[in-house]
Amino acid sequence: MSHGPLPIARPIVQPKESPLTQFAAVTFAETDLDSIADATGRVAVVVSPDGKLGPSARRVNKLTRGALKRLVESEGFAKAEGSVITLNWPAGLVAEALEIIVLARRATAEDVRSAGAALGKSHDTRDLLLLGGNLVPLPELIEAAVLRAYDYTDHKTEETKPLGAITVQSNDAEATKAAAADLLAVAQGVFFTRDLVNAPANDLTTSSFADRLSEMSALGLKVEVLEEDELQRLGMGALLSVGQGSASPTKVVVMQWNGGGDEAPLALVGKGVVFDTGGISLKPAGGMEDMTMDMGGAGTVAGAMRAIALRKARANVVGLVGLVENMPDGLAMRPGDVVTSMKGDTIEVTNTDAEGRLVLCDVMWYAQDRFKPAGMIDLATLTGAIIIGLGHHNAGVFSTDDALCNALINAATDVGEGAWRMPLGKAYAKQLKSRVADVNNVGGRPAGSITAAEFLRRFVKDETPWCHIDIAGVASVKAETTFAPSGGTGWGVRALDRLVRERFEPKG
Ligand code: BES
Ligand code: MN
Ligand code: ZN
Q: Are the CB atoms for 46 and 135 separated by under 8 Å?
């Protein structure tokens, strides 16, 4: 809520500008056996687990005086599918390292991902010549390598040298390039999300977040920023109550991509709590620094919109994010306060740390009110309980529409992002009864993720197919995943993009 001039000056530290983390330049060429001997940096060659060598591998074998043959004839080689074996300082090559990628011509998606990720993890400033030959899922191998070669350096003062260039040789360079183009566009969206999730809260304030989203208008997105006075006029009392204690103004950013006809859009709604102290229901000190990632839902929506715009999706998609900071303060909301949502429902705020649902309920209502979407998906780092339930390998999906939910889970599975459906139900909704208001913002400890979803369900109109994705366990992780180092993962950008392609774009 706007509280006029502040009684004391509270400066907001704004570190240097943070450009988007760039990934390695990728170029495509036809197979050229004579280029192998003199290639610098690293040379990677695909070898089938059955031990048969294609033309590039035969040339590498000849240059290295039989090293590849010895490898494929060694014990256990056939079991190495999906792995990458490194030969350092190989005789007969100028390159410093030879990477042997063990993959069948039609390798499974899982093996391709693990091989690509291994290649990406070791990618550094050295150039890489990737001899792809006739590998069918070569574009996906490149995608995985590029996604894994990510490093967040916005706040390192040591000069960061750009990643080495990747040259991909294959038997049909044009086809490989065309198939890789969309995947690389989406990867840019993933990097954007990771950068946002990794940014500390004094860098990514509500204002700098809105600025970074506004810059996406250069990609053909229509971006609007709604300020507090406008949000007040719209009646977003739940959202505004969360930001009352912060010196950073609450904002809603609307990003529209109109790549389709005049059909109703898909709406993506994201929780953008740039820092969650818990408010007056203060969180314990230990681990509180992790709450810089509490804008992960908004970050994912932003990355998905970037991906959709970059690959010029033939669909209408609108992304809406509620940007707010949850701080304890003399002006902050108190436990027990009753706030009024844009829908009109009154909410008793028993716990100011259950703030994400207060953000989402107003932005979701606004999204439906204004855009009458054909479907609505909200994403939020909503509950610690979903981490207890599903750990860090699956996001929790809640839905009132089987068709949309199945399509979403299939899309996530296809791209290797874990998603698992959770139940909803009236009995859970009962836990949210309030003595003084229409609904309570918390429902006690049992089934904490489900009662959170049931709270959101109140703000979904009957005619809106809806999914809620609780990404608290997957948005940022302490241990590296297949595709990402520790920190922000960008989970969901690729799944949402795939869903748009499969369900909201014309085929062919
Ligand atoms: N942002 C947190 C949820 C969270 C926890 C995200 C851990 C990522 C990692 C959310 O706002 C929150 O505090 N939820 C409370 C809800 C409770 C008060 C009903 C929680 O999960 O404890
Ligand atoms: Mn909270
Ligand atoms: Zn939160």
A: yes
Catalytic site includes residue 357: yes
Q: Are the beta carbons of 331 and 245 closer than 8 angstroms?
A: yes
Name the active-site residue from 343, 357, 458, 501.
Answer: 357
Tens digits of residue pLDDT in 56-66: 999 999 999 99
Same domain, yes or no: 400 and 305: yes
The structure tokens 């990728």 sit at: 26
Instruction: Give 286 Cα–ligand 2 centroid separation in angstroms.
Output: 15
Residue 215 has what pLDDT?
97
- 228-244: burial string, b at 16+ Cβ within 10 Å, e else: beebeebbbbbbbbbbb
Q: What is the greatest pairwise CA distance in the chain?
A: 82
How far is it, in rounded angstroms, from Cα 447 to Cα 443? 8
Q: What is the pLDDT of residue 11?
A: 54
How many structural domains is the chain composed of? 2
Q: What is the mean pLDDT of the chain?
A: 96
Q: Distance, CA 383 to ligand 2 centroid (Å)? A: 8
Per the listing, tokens 């009024």 go with: 340
Residue with tokens 């090559």: 93
Q: Which ligand is nearest to the CA of 278?
A: 2
Report which ligand 1 atom has the smallest distance to the Cα of 356. Answer: 11
Q: How far is the CA of 194 from the centre of ligand 2 (A)?
A: 21
C-alpha to C-alpha distances, 159 to 41, 153, 156, 200, 369, nearest whole angstrom: 21, 9, 8, 20, 48
User: What does the pLDDT read at residue 78?
Assistant: 87
101-151 pLDDT, tens digit each: 999 999 999 999 999 999 999 999 999 999 999 999 999 999 999 999 999
Do 397 and 321 share a structural domain?
yes
168 lies in which domain range?
A: 26-175
Would the pTM count as exceeding 0.90? yes
Task: Please give the backbone phi and psi of residue 191, each rounded to the nearest 5 degrees, phi first.
Answer: -65, -40
Q: How far apart are CA 172 and CA 29, in angstroms?
A: 8
- The CATH number covering residue 431 comes to 3.40.630.10
Nearest Cα neighbor of 109 from 141, 77, 146 is 141
User: CATH number, domain at 135?
Assistant: 3.40.220.10
Q: For atom 18 of ligand 1, which residue has the closest CA?
A: 354
Residues 239 and 156 in one domain: no
Q: Which residues does residue 324 pair with via DSSP β-bridges, in sequence order?
A: 273
Last residue of a domain, one of 175, 202, 225: 175
CA distances 231 to 78, 215, 342, 362, Å, are 61, 22, 9, 9
User: Which residue of the set 69, 105, 283, 421 is catalytic?
Assistant: 283
User: Do 280 and 352 meet the contact criterion of CB atoms below 8 Å apart?
Assistant: yes
pLDDT < 50 regions, the chain: none
Q: Which of 175, 210, 241 marks a domain boundary?
A: 175
Is there a contact between 381 and 475 (Cβ–Cβ < 8 Å)? Answer: yes
Residues framing ligand 1 (Cβ under 6 A): 276, 294, 351, 353-356, 381-385, 442, 448, 472
What is the Cα–Cα distance from 53 to 302, expressed in whole angstroms? 44
**Ligand found nearest the CA of 290:** 1
